[in-house]
Amino acid sequence: MLHYTNKLKPILAILLVCVAFVSTAQPSERENYKGKTPKYIFYFIGDGMGLSQSNAAEAYLGAIEGNSPIKQLNMNSFPTQGFYTTYATDRFITGSAAAGTALATGHKTSISTISMAADRLTPLKTIAEIAKEKNYKVGIVSSVSIDHATPATFYAHQPTRNMYYKISLDLSKSGFNYFAGGGLKHPEGDGEVNVNAKNSMSNFGMGSEKEILKKEPNSISVAKSRGYRVVNTLEGFKNLKKGDDKIIATAPNLSGGSALPYFIDQQNGADISLAEFTQKGIELLDNPKGFFMMVEGGKIDWASHANDAATVIKEVIQLDMAVEKALNFYKKHPKETLILVAGDHETGGLALGFAGSHYVSAFGLLQHQNISYEGFSSKIAEYKKEQKENAKFSDALEMVKTHFGLGDASKGLELSAFEIEQLKTAFEKSMTYNKEMKKEDQFYLLYGSYDPFTVTACHILSHKAGIGWTSYSHTAAPIPIRAIGVGAELFNGFYDNTDVPKNLMKLIE
Ligand SMILES: [Zn+2]
Q1: Which of 169, 113, 131, 122 is nearest to 39 (CA)?
Q2: Over the stretch 91-114, which tens digit does the pLDDT of each residue have?
Q3: Distance 150 CA to ligand 1 centre (A)
Q4: 345 alpha carbon – ligand 1 mean position (Å)
Q5: By CB distance 3.0 to 4.6 Å, which of 47, 231, 433, 477 could disulfide with 301?
């Protein structure tokens, strides 16, 4: 990559000129804006949420309710819709850190960089920091760990997203008023992760042991010494009330990667949903000087990496329920509120159509899945540990019937001989393969870095529903943004992701 860069210098220079040009695609509307300044700003970001993720959710809801092919999400009811490009400075297909930086600062940066210029030396001011300077109260909410790339780009400045510990120190240094959702990944220092640290969304990474190399001052204690109160129980969360300030509220039950459990796996009455964290944010942040709240639906991306359509759709629905809370607030303050619903990039190359299902769409079949790929992978891992060489394919078939409906003719989910063969091959792989799947492995195309049996079950159900996948990674499809309220008109059109915070900065100037 690096010596490539040298050879490509003249081309890069031209590209940079293009970038500069594109990123000011709509300066006239922005510069000539004469409207009001929004007092309350909601900035929702669906991580990995392209047009097809939100449309799949609408098609699914339409199918299970049966009244029309599409049931519109709250986010798509907004009067203003725009699209933007997402590329990073050093890669056409962006990542969450570079895309988050663009959406938080108005500057393009390099892959993995958290709100610093592409050189990884120069910090870039974020819209959340500017809002704080303008006396807005600031909230940062996410369904994944609160030090993960997207939320981090709003308060941290670090050369790479993997510096979770330093990011968590930046968190309490920010002085923002409300952090909520998932926990912190490495509160005792990044040294606790061994060099082969597993990717948090890889099934084989689940439960990987941590090797504590060097303990640092716990970043939660540091946050407390800086005046934050940390709440991590249901009771404590419920008791948070208007006037409580400098709060870090994390989910009572954290799943893999210190994230909220998937919406499909959440237990009513035991877990706190993204909508509840958002509603609490409104309660705590509402004040005469206004607020800025960023809310990330972070696991749309994770489930899309795993090609798990039912879980993706439920994550989009969870985000839309959080949007509904903002919309209810907007209805009370329509002349003072702006709501944006954006995304950072598309993940998985999700398509509402698949070669094997031709023109058939049967999105309703996805309702028979009752567990996320993560939950199902754990069951397979447990089974493998218990049964060892006694593992039987008939048991595995029972498990996909129970959790995906696969093989249940009464649900319209009969398995063909070919599908049974696919499941059998994958099951044998799951029971015998112990390494993490690498991109160069011949099986990567089939299973990505996930448990082979689980990802195969997800694929078969997706295909039966008429959903196709092209990747276990991100794609470069332009991303939709929706806007309602004060200044929404600035978000019309086709522009670059860096224009989103530039518009916001203009609005609160
Ligand atoms: Zn992302």
Answers
A1: 131
A2: 999 999 999 999 999 999 999 999
A3: 7
A4: 6
A5: 47
